[in-house]
Amino acid sequence: MPECGSQCWLCDLPVRFDTYRGCTHGCKYCFVQRKSGLEVQPHESAKQLAQFIAGKRTGETRWADWDIPIHWGGMSDTFQPCEKNMKRSLEALQLLAETGYPCVISTKGKLCIEEPYLSLIGQGNIVMQVSVVCSKYDALEPGAPSYEERLHMVEVLSKTAKRVIVRAQPYICDVFNDVRDNIKRIADAGAHGIVFEGMKFNRKKPGTVRCGGDFVIPVQYLKADFERLRGECHKHGLAFYAGENRLRAMGDSLTCCGVDGLEGFKPNTYNLAHILNGDKVIPGGGITSTRNGDTVSNRISDGGILSQGDKGQVVCRGHAMDGEKQSRIRCGRAGAEKAITEKGSGYVFQKIFQEAGYAAIFREMSFWEALGWMMKNKTRYVKDVLNVK
Predict the structure, then answer these.
(1) Whole-model pTM?
(2) Could you name the CATH architecture of 3-268?
(3) Secondary structure of the chain in HEC code, one letter for each residue
């Protein structure tokens, strides 16, 4: 069943779907290699996707009670070689073609430009994202089609899909010239835009700095490159998106996946990336529903309220990811322990707090109050991740 990804506190399309677990592309930089490796196993099915499309939700996605676009292929490539035999992606693609449900598919796999896949993509309400950095990455992606093959994929897909976005990620400054010089070729191939994001490492590398749980390229270096790459994109009629959370506002849209302005693609913009970048967002869907444990009595613009309550207090324990000492936060009333098992938009709040370094336990503090508290206090982790001063 499609569920929320780990970036639901930042991402406009946090609902993820994967027909496989594991990936044979073997990209040296990919976090999936650390999680699942090269061994591929069946994962979510077309039947589960059909249930989601029909309106059935799990605790993680109950808040998203509209046709929120699904991001397919975040943890395993949809069109990797095993698909030729297993055909799980084909079944899901047929469903998407029949229903017209909005979907963003991320891939490096060239099977998507073969039939019947290509025709089904054209019949569906589908944005294709093709990961293409430069030819120097071919050595880092031994099981994937070459850079030139993927550029050809962009050309073919641009005639069929609703929109084609190139993912120049993970980006490193060493390949700036290669990436810049290829932007015209990407535009000529028919892409709508390019999304850029810096490479992340799980261990310290020379020249990197700690940001949240990762080691990353210092933001000032990425910003300098992104400014020049943005100019080159615009010169050739391409949209520029910053998937790099610290620089999200540099993009032509804060919705960095490239679905901005597309009819039928309604993302969830009520997240910290939009809020902390000054976007006047309005929550919708089940986020405002009391059945999901939330009220709209205190909007995030009010700065949030953390009352101690007169019927007892609950202490949330956690530690900031930047290594600060354990913190104790008063945030609610007695009985809040039950809320840790509740889902809906409360799940999104839990994720936000967990990512910020706290274990959230709450009951009578609304979604707005929780986010408002984070905005008002701006933990060091949130400042680093979103480059908020």
Answers:
(1) 0.78
(2) Alpha-Beta Horseshoe (3.80)
(3) CCEECCCCCCCCCCEEECCEECCCCCCCCCCHHHHCCCCCEECCCHHHHHHHHCCCCCCCCCCCCCCCCEEECCCCCCCCCCHHHHCHHHHHHHHHHHHCCCEEEEECCHHHHCCCHHHHHHHCCEEEEEECCCHHHHHHCCCCCCHHHHHHHHHHHCCCCCEEEEEEEEECHHHHHHHHHHHHHHHHCCCCEEEEEECEECCCCCCCEEECCEEECCHHHHHHHHHHHHHHHHHCCCEEEECCHHHHHHCCCCCCCCCCCCCCCCCCCCCHHHHCCCCCCCCCHHHHCHHHCCCCCCCHHHCCCCCCCCCCCCEEEECCCCCCCCEEEECCCCCHHHHHHCCCHHHHHHHHHHHCCECCCCCCCCHHHHHHHHHHHCCHHHHHHHCCC
